[in-house]
User: What shape does this take?
Amino acid sequence: MKVKARAKKGVAKIKLLVRHPMDTGRAKDPKTGQLIPAHFIQELTCEYKGKVVFTAQLGSLVSKDPYLAFAIKGAALGEKLKLKWIDNQGKTEEVEASIS
Amino acid sequence: MITRRSFMQGMMGAGSMVAAVTAFPKMAFAWAENAFTADNLTDAQDAMFSGSSAVDSGRVKLKAPQIAENGAVVPITISSDLANVTNISVFVEKNPTPLSASFELNPMLVPEVSVRIRMGKTSNIIAVVKADGKLYKASQEVKVTIGGCGG
Assistant: This one.
């Protein structure tokens, strides 16, 4: 997960890019002709000052390599964010980022 | 405290710091399954909002391209100047499963979110914002040249 968190004029703009196939379960593998099973991020959260402030519930019709952007009011330089996601196969990733 | 997560990770051996394959039970977090699997707009909205309906509002701004060359990646931004926004949801009317994403926002969030979605064909995108418990929406048609839902 790539995270950009920049504070400007009292607002921290957060941009995320997560590497994930977001397979819909509808596409066929061109080599085998079999359906590629659905594999997509279902939930992504951002924790700030010990609280989850942002929860994204995603379906398989979000683009591959999900890009998300949101902004936190009052967040300042040096403060930390914890970003986590979980997909429908139970895989997870957790990343800590600082606001710069 | 032994949480279910730490117990499961202990059982499965050490995971990496960055990514861990862990068997989470379905209940560990709430994913709006009925809403995400609904195959038509009405059912998806009913499931997401427990039957409440949204009114069209100029205070919900949906920014989306007029034409999406590639339906697999359609960038959109939804924002609102309404107070106390707690949820922003995105529906693509003609997608096989219209609910694309739903975002829960704490009051300290600016009421704006950007995401890239897949569209199978030319369709209306409907952005719904929940503010002070009420639902408001804005729609825009996006023309799609090459569909991006796969299959």
The mean pLDDT of chain A is 96. The interface with chain B takes residues 11, 23-24, 26-28, 42-43, 48, 51-64, 66-75, 86, 89-95 of chain A (CB under 8 Å). The two ends of chain A are 17 Å apart (CA to CA).
